[in-house]
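@channel anyone free to eyeball this complex?
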Amino acid sequence: MIGKKMEQAINEQIKHELYSSYLYLAMANYFETIHLPGFAHWMSVQAEEERSHAMKFVEHLNDRGGKVVFQALDQPPSEFKGPLDVFQQVQAHEEKVTGLIHALYDTAVQENDKPAQVLLHWFINEQVEEEKNAELIAQQLQMIGDQRPALFMVDRHLAGRGK
Ligand code: MG
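replying in thread with the prediction:
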């Protein structure tokens, strides 16, 4: 059975993962409003992925006799300055989440909670991917500047994202 401290810390992380999903859904809708359906698609797949992250923690608590307590989510922003602004925010957000995952891992080590440590190894690797993806797109958008044809090419590319 999972300890109270770890249970509470995981419930906190579930909130952060669900907020990530909420944030990326807000960004997906923003891209719809500025007529970039490929960006919108990429972001809505990302929102689904964040929901699946939350579910990994939910299942972990359920599997170990913990209690899942959902918390209130903050309201995500609904206005952005453009695609680059969005991806710079994604990058900053993922760096913050990486810090939270690392702190959660430290708690799992302090609590000598080995199953949670094993689960968090997956998340530590996942954050490397998340940061890499966000940084790559942000840097490409920086290179593009205000060149519309290049922006449409990126939109087409992002439209092809699978799960
Ligand atoms: Mg996540």
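from a first look: The chain has a mean pLDDT of 97.
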